[in-house]
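Here is an idea for our session: we take a single protein and study its fold together. Which protein we use is up to you, so please pick one and set it down. Once you have written the record down, we can walk along the chain together:
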Amino acid sequence: MVITAIADGITRGVERAASLASAPFSDPVIRLGVTGLSRAGKTVFITSLVANLMDRGRMPQFRAAAQGAIRTAYLQPQPDDTIPRFDYEDHIARLTAPEPSWPEGTRHISELRLSLRVQPTGLLAGLTGPRTVHLDIVDYPGEWLLDLALLDKDYATWSADTLGRIEARGAADRVAQLAAADGTADLDEVEAKALAQTYTAYLAEARAEGWSDCTPGRFLLPGDLAGSPVLTFAPLTKPANPGRRSLWREFERRYESYKRNVVRPFFRSHFARIDRQVVLVDVLGAIHGGPRAVEDMRQALADILGAFQPGRNSFLNRVFGGRRVERILFAATKADHLHHSQHGELTAIAEALLRDARDRADFAGAKTKAMSIASLRTTTETEMQHEGRTLGVVRGRLLATGREAAFHPGDLPGDPSHLLSPARQGAERWLDADYGAMIFAPARLTLQPGEGPPHIRLDRAADFLIGDRL
């Protein structure tokens, strides 16, 4: 195993060296990873970003567009022939239809290449002609992202952590079913399959209830691996002396096989090649779920972001150490569900949730930023009187009924610790406030020539992520 890892590392180093040797003679490429937990809005973010880079009328804070440096933007075939193409055309058609609908969420890895024809400005404007910069956007399920945290856990640690998490979430019946299994008994495939199905059913329930950590991610999105031994295991209570042919030992072997054959190849082939990163977080959804949901999200994000390799890219680092993430944007999504007067509070809460990971990234030399965004604006703002005070509310079309409704989710605290402290202490509910959530349908759009879909701060996000390279 060690020799294989060394050989694999040497091979990747040679590939990187060959790529760098030809880099001065090829167009520059920015690899942007779009990650986040389920329901954070990855698909809509990519679709709206691409649409607004192609038609830049709504991008005043994206300096390369505002200054006229971008002459044109167009889609091209992606460089990785073995990865499905991100279905941009279908997604944008859904969002801009007369009766718009949300596109389906991410279920597999996909990629899209957007090429930007850029005219240098400043001192270089008269010396060089336009150049092409390729933006390769990589999209993959948030459930897969969570698996990166498994790389540092053995089966016993993962089992203990998972059973404790299930019980803390109030699913004691699921814990009882898994704990009843005798880990010392000889492996029985019928029982193994039943245990895996029980655990998978729990994961589906947990995701529906808004919990963040639902690992292993391929249990919910198995694809071609459905029914394979690598997805036929579950957490167990560790017995004192499990035998070589016992259920425990076989589940332990399959867990390690899952990390070796599923998680590591994904990390090596895709995640570790990214140099710009967006981390999308549905902070409002977690707040609506209560203190335990907020703490669950904080812990999940801490585990995920520990897998990043932040820092400045350099020649030696690219040859010997792989690419490192130079810029990371932490984006609290669905800002259009709040009146703009509360966007500052939402950003502050997102920063506090990600404080530890952001500090590590800053220390390693990466540039980081947190902001509140809406990839596609679905609401309008207004004010209304309630109990003698004026409330800033948003108005939109409800997904469930199609009816217009005004919504005020509750006043977010100016101090994020008012939410994070009870979350860390395991409080069951917010003591001094109630927070609501609604699911809005996409707004019907009437776009003028040269305009992309309406958004909130998507231009600032683009400027931070790729503006320095244009």
About this structure: Strands lie at 29-36, 70-76, 110-118, 131-139, 276-281, 327-332, 367-372, 379-386, 389-397, 404-407. Confidence is low (pLDDT under 50) at residues 1-8, 14-24. The chain is about 40% helix and 15% strand. The chain has two domains: 2-140+270-378+445-469, 149-266.
